[in-house]
Amino acid sequence: MDQDTTGRIGALIARMTLQEKLGQLTMLADGLVETGPPGPHNPFNMVADGRVGSLLNVWGADLIREAQRRAVEESRLGVPLFFGLDVVHGHRSIHPVPLGEACAFDRALWEETARASAQEAAHDGVHMTFAPMIDVARDIRWGRIVECAGEDPYVNAQYARARVRGYQAPDETGRMRLAACAKHFCAYGAVLAGREYAEVDVSQRALEEVYLPPFRAAVDAGVAAIMPAFVDVAGVAMTAHRRLLREVLRAQWRFNGLIVTDYNSIAELVNHGVAADMAEAAALALNAGVDIDMMSDAYANGLPVALERGLVSMEDIDGAVRRVLALKQSLGLFDDPYRGMGPAGTPKQPPSAEGRRLSREAARRSIVLTQNRESMLPLGAVRTLAVVGPLADACEDQLGAWASAGAGEDSTTIIAGLRATWPSAEVRHALGAVYEGEDADLLAQAVEAARGADAVVLCVGESRAMNGEANTRTRPYVPQGQLALARAMLDSGAPVILVLCSGRPLILPDWLVEGARAVLIAWHAGTETGSALGDILSGACNPSARLAVTWPRVLGQVPIFFGIRPTGRPHDPANGWSTGFGDAPFAPRWSFGEGQGYARFARSNLRVDNARLGPESLVRVSVDVTNLGDRQACETVFVFSHDPVARVTRPLLELRDFTKVSLEPGETRTATFVLRAWDFAYPDETLKLRLDTGLIQLHVGASARACDLDRVDVEIVEGTP
Ligand code: NOJ
Predict the structure, then answer these.
(1) Helix, strand or coil for residue 308?
(2) Choosing from 86, 124, 262, 293, which is the catalytic residue?
(3) Which domain holds residue 633?
(4) Over the stretch 606-661, which tens digit does the pLDDT of each residue have?
(5) Fewest CB within a 10 Å sphere: which of 13, 18, 312, 550?
(6) Among protein residues, the one whose CA lies closest to atom 4 of ligand 1
(7) Rounded alpha-carbon distances, angstroms, from residue 102 to 296, 504, 592
(8) Strands 236-237 and 232-233
(9) 599 CA distance to ligand 1 middle (Å)
(10) pLDDT band for position 475 (50/70/90)?
(11) CATH number of the structural domain spanning residue 310
(12) Beta-strand pair 293-294/26-29
């Protein structure tokens, strides 16, 4: 962030009253979208008095220009506001939900879509996005799993870096276009039983190995802000977590950006039972290093009392104000409070052609094909297609949770996309079922539509309101009414292409997966869901996405993820005294990394250029990949490691890198990864990072399944003493 070279910030703070300082630390929500309990205020009317320093949940040149005008022209000191919004996967043009886009395993795409969202949002007056969300999540009951990049810390760290770069990429003036706010620091994904806002109790090891690395990556990439999570971690509320916020984030990682609370979080410290009143809550947060109070009025009302009681110092208040003003300065708001914004009176902008192109491309690369029996796909000549299910014509729902300013009217729905793909075919449509509940008439219409069709495209799953914040589900299944539709479609005799649209992995009955000829996991793929699906079904696009999250077979397997540790009695179906379940298989329905295209690949010649490594060594790992199919195709290659003998148990697989290899028919290319020996260091029994001498296994291949991996070993010949 900019240093205060002009002394402007210091001079401003010196002129501020306490109320004006607290105003800078107060962020209030306007009502264009509701992302938490509405407050009692009309924030626009508080701007001129300097009682608010930033707003959220408002966008568009008209509103933002007016609020900013009040700040710079009517408030005593003329300090500009900044405006925040959850620009999570697009702004006007909506890209796939993050869990979907994670499946593209493509850092350049993650960066490009973030940059494009930033452009659209900045044009609408937004300065900060509350993204990326990088909470590693392994429990499909938790609705917010949709917002992250899946189950793996390395993937979330790579995603964090790409998103921060994309959002914060410079505009024409050389300043970051949008400030990113990485959230939710930390371990929110580990809430008990997936229960929203619930307690988190994970070990320090889990924090260091799983939950903190994505945030470290965001900080290293220069993220402008961090949002502490709503939750407590082992009893310490994150909004008041001095050790993690001050010692780890600020001191160890040298983060000097803004810490912005989550919505109403400071006031909720009273509900957590760690503060008796608003003054204590405010003091806890400020003393932990929190700068901005989003929506709880705790700083405005509580800090004056806390000052009187001697619980906080003016120095700490000034420090927080300085960081807020430094962000405004970095964004260039003192020089041009209306920077980057369209003129007032601009009518609402639909997605541009470029916005649509990118949404379609991102969706094509995020939709995962997990099953394709008898090469059902791509579809050849199509005469009659029945497209049924509540997601077939769901212009709003396909946008997914946190769709920002995305409008359903701009969507290309699945039915529209398939009609455009096959203009001369008869593409019939029937709703078939509502999301939840039974409807015999709708079902009968779908049966009629399927009669004599070449294929049925069965679009089932979740509405967007069924996942996201505050949408924990105890039954993350395809609901009964939709299953009845599925059963009827399988009984129709037409081959069924199952298209699952959701924000989380869903538990599916075996009969559905076994009965469907092809299965596509489309997530909520955004504005251009329908065109992208048409491209994939017709073969114009060869699907290349791979699962960034394990799909359980039954709910009792949850939490389920590939990075488990070895047990003393490893799973062995032939041994009743081994790890597993008495009533369910051990393996998931689909593993991390699974996904197919319309080609097969062969891997060969796995090798390393250096098998004996010291602590500073690099090792180059290479493998040849051949496209055995007859069309251009893209394979994803993962490199995992395993340390078979260490002082503490090490996960069976730890992801170290991934890449995509694009291949013409018959072509062979080499995928190469450069790993550092130091990457194999781990926190020992005292949590000190150590590198042991001895063997490290490298597992390279197409997914986390053993059958998809080849192995090569390296030896650490010199470690830490
Ligand atoms: C609450 C959510 O937890 C957070 O992710 C979001 O950024 C804020 N509301 C603001 O909308």
Answers:
(1) helix
(2) 262
(3) 601-716
(4) 999 999 999 999 999 999 999 999 999 999 999 999 999 999 999 999 999 999 99
(5) 18
(6) 262
(7) 33, 12, 11
(8) antiparallel
(9) 41
(10) very high
(11) 3.20.20.300
(12) parallel
Query: What's the confidence (pLDDT) of residue 31?
Result: 87
Gap between the Cα atoms of 374 and 578, Å rounded: 36
Secondary element (H or E) of residue 158: helix 153-167
Whether residue 605 is found in the same domain as residue 699: yes
Per-residue model confidence (pLDDT) at position 4: 58
Question: Domain total for the chain?
Answer: 3
Work out the number of other CB atoms within 10 angstroms of the CB of residue 137.
28
pTM of the model: 0.98
Instruction: Let me know: does 50 contact 75? Beta carbons within 8 Å.
Output: yes
CA distance 358 to 364: 10
The whole-angstrom separation of Cα 526 and Cα 509 is 26
- Residues 609 and 547 reside in one and the same domain: no
Asked whether residue 441 is domain-assigned, the answer is: yes
Q: CB of 692 within 8 A of CB of 643?
A: yes
Q: Give the DSSP per-residue string, 210-277.
A: IISHHHHHHHHTT-SEEEE-SSEETTEEGGG-HIIIIIIIIIIS---SEEB--TTTTTHHHHHTS-SS
Rounded Cα distance between 457 and 455, Å, is 7
Match 């946190």 to its residue by tokens. 402
From 86, 135, 260, 266, give the residue whose CB has the most ligand 1 atoms within 8 Å, as the site to mutate: 86
Strand order in the sheet with 26-29: 258-259, 225-228, 179-185, 128-129, 82-85, 54-56, 26-29, 293-294
Question: Do the domain assignments include residue 337?
Answer: no
- 672 vs 622: CA distance, rounded Å: 4
What are the residues facing 372 on neighbouring strands? 518
> Which helix (DSSP H) or strand (DSSP E) does residue 455 occupy?
strand 455-461
Is 261 close to ligand 1, i.e. is its CB under 6 Å away? no
Are 421 and 359 in contact by the 8 Å Cβ rule? The answer is no
Same-domain status, 302 and 371: no
User: Domain ends where: 298, 330, 362?
Assistant: 330
Tell me how many helices (H) and strands (E) the chain has.
19, 26
Task: Tell me how far apart the alpha carbons of residues 115 and 311 are, in angstroms, rounded to a whole number.
Answer: 42
Tell me the average pLDDT across 395-399: 98
- In a domain? residue 341: no
Residue that is last in its domain, among 330, 363, 378: 330
User: Ligand 1: which atom is nearest the Cα of residue 57?
Assistant: 11
- Protein residue with its CA nearest to atom 7 in ligand 1: 130
For 92-148, what is each residue's pLDDT tens digit? 999 999 999 999 999 999 999 999 999 999 999 999 999 999 999 999 999 999 999
397 among known catalytic residues: no
Token digits of residue 83: 């405006």
Cα distance between residue 2 and residue 550, in whole Å: 42
Rg over alpha carbons for the chain, rounded to the nearest Å, is 26
Assess if residue 579 is contained within a domain. no
Residues 70-107 have pLDDT tens digits of: 999 999 999 999 999 999 999 999 999 999 999 999 99
For residue 500, the domain's CATH number is 3.40.50.1700
Residue entry with tokens 């790409």: 162
To test the pocket of ligand 1, the residue of 128, 129, 263, 266 to mutate (highest count of ligand atoms within 8 Å of its CB) is 263
Position 2 pLDDT exceeds 50: no
Q: In angstroms, rounded to a whole number, what is the distance separating the alpha carbons of residues 693 and 304?
A: 57
Q: Are residues 123 and 195 in the same domain?
A: yes
Position 671 confidence tier, pLDDT thresholds 50, 70, 90: very high
Spell out the residues 6+ positions from residue 329 whose beta carbon is closer than 8 angstroms to its own.
Answer: 2, 4, 8, 9
* Ligand 1 neighbourhood includes 117 CB (under 6 angstroms): no
